[in-house]
Design goal:
The structure is a single chain. This protein has 157 residues and is of the alpha/beta class. 34% of the residues lie in helices and 14% in strands. α3 links the parallel β2 and β3. The protein is globular and about 50 Å long.
């Protein structure tokens, strides 16, 4: 995937900086991590605390996302040259100041829209989507016939 190559190129070009990638905790973050692994990135990927639980859930269901580590308690210097995945809200949050001169990136289909890139203050927009189209999604639900279906978009509550 071209967007993952751009992310890895940015990381290698600036080993003194952390690449901070905003991605939603359900689906988007795991797709991003899986694509990084598929591209051969086997170094640890660091996670904001809000991402850990969902990634553990994926692992519990047999989806190997590789070496994932929490950012908490990591020395600032140890995060230079690393990829850190966080919720989009953390990109401009006080939390991100713990990272060494972060390169703000955002993984979203919305990164095609320049206005959204500017609004978010994103240096590295990554056009990555995890959405199935509506017809495929509803057909899959009918075929699987689950006892229960959970649908989420936006806020968790």
């Amino acid at each position: 995937m071209q967007e993952i190559a751009r992310l890895l190129d940015a990381m290698h070009a600036r080993p003194d900086r952390a690449v901070l990638v905003g991605a939603y905790a359900l689906g988007k973050a795991q797709r991003l991590i899986a694509e990084l692994r598929r591209a051969g990135h086997d170094a640890p990927i660091f996670l904001h605390g809000a991402m850990e639980r969902m990634c553990r859930l994926y692992a519990g269901h047999g989806i190997d996302l590789g070496d994932l580590r929490p950012v908490a308690d990591m020395p600032r210097a140890a995060l230079a040259g690393q990829i850190v995945v966080c919720p989009p809200s953390a990109l401009a949050d006080r939390w991100s100041r713990r990272l060494p001169d972060p390169i703000p990136a955002m993984a979203s289909g919305w990164m095609r829209v320049r206005q959204r890139v500017r609004q978010r203050g994103v240096e590295l927009p990554l056009v990555v989507s995890d959405h199935a189209d509506w017809d495929e999604l509803t057909r899959t639900i009918v075929e699987v016939n689950p006892a229960e279906t959970w649908i989420t978009h936006g806020r968790e509550e």
